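Open question from group meeting: does this chain pack into something compact, or does most of it stay loose? Before anyone orders reagents, we agreed to write out a predicted structure and look at it together. Recording both the input and the output here so the notebook holds the full record.
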Amino acid sequence: MGLYDDVLVAGGVRLPKFPTDASPSDIEWQTKDVGRPAMQAYKLTADGRLLRREREFREKTPEEKQRAAADHGFDSWEEYVSFCEHTSPDERIQRGIGLGAPDPQPLNEELWLDHNMHGSFEFHGRRDDVEDGFYWSYEARFTRGELDAIVFLGERGGGLPDEYKPGAPVRVEF
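Structure tokens returned:
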């Protein structure tokens, strides 16, 4: 399985052989081909650009830490952190905390920056309620940041990898 990156397909992007009664933006797409996969998010825009999501975090204020601790029934942030570090996952879940440790750094700002892609990458997606759970595979081709074409690579149904059916190369030019 390994690491991958998410690809968001914006409304208005046409994908060859994709069902006309569904939107590509409703599918969860993934790739391992844009640099090294690092659980990043990319967006394929209707005007033919590839954007990369960047996030900026900040430290929680003492008031935010105290409020988070109080929300989970603790008197202080330190008590909350200590509990999470020294208890089992089952105990944290029973208390309604979840598996993760308290997060001292919330998201401050999210930016979408032009990735200025040159080359191509494959992306794959599926959704059970679209075309009986078919998987779709595409290749997006870029020259100096501009999307040239999206090529349909194939589909498979049923969920077994050996049922993959490469399709005839179908392209959408941009």
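Observations to bring back to the group:
The beta strands are 5-9, 28-31, 41-44, 50-57, 107-114, 119-126, 135-143, 146-156, 165-173.
The first strand starts at residue 5 and ends at 9.
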